[in-house]
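Step 1: inspect the first sequence and its tokens.
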Amino acid sequence: MSHGEEMFSHYHLIPMDETAWSNLQPRKMLKGEQEFEWITTYRKSKNSAGSNSAGEFLKEVSLQDVRLDPSSVRWRAQQTNLEYLLLFDVDSLVWSFRKTASLPTSGKAYGGWEEPTCELRGHFVGHYLSTTAQMWASTHVDSIGEKMSALVTALAACQEKMVTGYLSAFPSDQFDRFETIKPVWTPYYTIHKIMAGLLDQYTLAGNKQALKMVTWMADYCWSCVSNVIINYSIERHWLSLNEETGGMNDALYQLFSVTNHTKHLFLAHLFDKPCFLGLLAVQADDIAGFHANTHIPVVVGAQMRYEVTGDPLYKTIGTFFMDIVNSSHSYATGELLPSLGELWKYPKRLATTLEVENEESCTTYNMLKVI
């Protein structure tokens, strides 16, 4: 087994299975108006059933309309979180973004996941964008609103300097490695966090600049995916998805729900992972060996696809996934997955995989997003 094959061996089905599923997809991207006409027709056909249309979903109450009781423990927890968020320095958060954009840097970069040598740098900033938007919507505290707005403005300057729509704390050559199936640490995972954070800044805090930025990022991603499919094949694109791509399909479906641009819908489809969702579609409890933190966000995206298109198949996929995880891959505490490489093990045999670091927080967080 080559190094590349070994690196991806726990992420995906075997190539033959991948080919079987990918043959169901267009081999080359459609061009211009044909592409949009095709996907618009698809969407209309899926929404024609009426009872499956996204318009009939229950609507969650906006965070803008919810306030916690100041005498409650939850309010005290919220205040603690608010104080923590205010500790962060914008210059330090965007240090690597400015470095990547060849802009002057100020202050000192944060360490940990944001360490300037870490290939995942920037993804904490995406989380910060999301949580500050949620905090502002929940409290309307001016200080957190000013900090998150300053962060969006600083990131916008980086994106404008790079011209292409690219926005990241690491250089774009990580995507070159990703697309040529060379070892790299999950660039789309980080991009997803940034896009999701900017979407939250727009939907929860009304920052129109953030919407412009995430739309421009989607244009860049479109160019990347188009390049792989047109110059190689759809199979090459599916193979590149062996790396963790976070919830790219979820973010793009959400973006489409805002922009109604069929380009965003089509790109979201291309980040659905057929080889995994296909197993769930035929209701096969055969997820042992799959990397959980890679695939749970794909299911979250599948559920968003159902909400956006009304396609009942994706409701079935999400429901079946929850059924098998709850019945066969979860501990009595409600948590799931041993920490052994973040891999699902054989169903209903969790006792054989108990270690000192079970119930990992990353997978728990992602499972909480599965509706």
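Step 2: inspect the second sequence and its tokens, then contrast the two.
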Amino acid sequence: MSDHDYSAIKLPEHVKTVLVTGAGGFVGQQLVKLLLSLYPSVRLITTDIVQPPNHGITDEKRLKSVKADLGDKTQLEGLFEGEKIGGVFALHGIMSGGSEANFPLGYSVNLDSHISLLKAVHAHANSQFPSTEPRPVYVFASSLAVYGGVTPQSVVDPKTTPVIPESSYGVQKHVVEMIVYDYGRKGYLDTRTVRLPTVVVRPGAPSSAASSYISGMIREPLNNQPSLCPIATSFDDPALDEYLTWVSRSKTVIRNILWALCFPEDKFKLALGYGLGGRVINLPGFQVTPRQIIQALIEHGGPEAAKLIEYKKDQAVINICNTWAGAFDNSVYLKMGFVVDDAKTGFGDAVKDFKEEMASQ
């Protein structure tokens, strides 16, 4: 399913069963597909607020798909009954625009349910993993939205740039980062956090993320549907060059999320040596402008496709986009074995990936 090399990515020996929350979302589905293809002997338990797909697997010894509300204690605890879960990918959440628009829901899903999940995994570890065994590995999917005091022209150095969120989504993610870190610091779980860049090109319906328009300006026109560009008034608007955005191909993000679980715990502090005890990773990405996105659409869909883009500023989206940094220093994470797309060809490759996905359906 990918052009990345996975030969060196080995699950820790004690990880025989993996739980994936948010498995009905795009990132969750792609991660589950990758796990199924790479590790035929590993049992997967997938869950979401809606029934996650089983990807053609009917044997529950291989893949158990569960519809569950993680805010409900009984449903949450039911995921662990009769299991010995050695790895967790906590991917579920309400996206940036949605959590900003619905304050209570954002905190319920992005904060409360993650705290409940951490407690449940900790209790499970105590009951199923003797003190002589390694702790379950817990990977929390956070966001670069935790950075505030930045603009699309900013370049974030993770060693020196403070984390000061400027959105409810960023606040919620950072609070959970701190708690995830504390569970690792205490030795309760082997925790690590990955901050995701904007993932392109996402298929399916538009999400509530403020960044959804980035995929939408490719996805909808290639499906002969109109798409909204909410940060400009026309193709001649200078804003198309000013809103620098940090993105990554979906295949690359999925590969890096998996590598986060496989990277040895004892090497984190040695590799990072700063920031939450070396347990937080800004997944690598590359910079793209809205104009470059439109140019990629023209290259892969023709001039007629670009005519399907409607330009209408949305101040709510602009307010969130104004708090995003346009670039991040990848260097320390690349030394750890995380990978990055080529800045010149990465977005075009992401569009090709999307077209291949469309053709296979």
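Step 3: confirm your contrast with the notes below.
The longest strand covers residues 137-143. The mean pLDDT is 92.
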